[in-house]
Amino acid sequence: MSPAVSGCDRHYGSANVCVPTVFPPRVKATTKARCAWLEGQGYGRLKVNGKDDPLRLDPDGGGWACERRVTGALES
Question: Around Cβ 62, how many Cβ atoms within 10 Å?
Fold first, then answer.
C-alpha cells in the first residue's frame, strides 16, 4: 500500500510502510490473526514507533510487531 493512503497506522514500520488501521472483516481482532494476514500480504517483522501499540501487534512490548511467523493463523 502507498504511504500516502489514508488509513495507514504510522505506529508500525518505516515511513514507506502502510499498516492498515482497519483489517478485512474475516480477520479476527487478535495479534495472531492480524499478524498472519499482514504476513500473507508480504509484511515482515515491523518496528513499533514509540510506545503506543493500538493494534496490539507487539504483545510482549519489545518494540517489534509480528516478530513471530504465524502462517495459517488467519482465522485463529
Answer: 9
